[in-house]
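User: quick one, fold this
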Amino acid sequence: MNRRQRPPKSGRSCFLPDCLPCLPSFAALAVPLFNCAVAGFQYYDGLRCIPTIRPGDRLDLVREPDNPHDEKAIAVYAPNDGKLGYLPRHLNEIPAIHLDNGKNLHALINHISSEAPPWEMLKVTVVMT
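Assistant:
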């Protein structure tokens, strides 16, 4: 197909090869930035939230510029369940700049394990939408 030809109409709302299923619009537009474990998971609402969160769930990232321990702090929240912890300090500088500049960043849950050490219980991918 050259640039001037239109793709064939397949009745689908997204432009993906026929062998791939259509993804939700959020997932199709999300650009992954990095993977990490959520710091402080055991100190906030994380342990209480384990039964209600699932891999693939979207989490909110909220800047905390007045945090006394880290001026670049980014808290991780489950939409209806509370604070789950923070992005690790050694990874939060660039995402903090993006959030401060109005970019949309979120986290997607990769893995949850109540049997893992506390610092590895919740692993996420940070994405830009």
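User: anything notable?
Assistant: The two ends are 29 Å apart (CA to CA).
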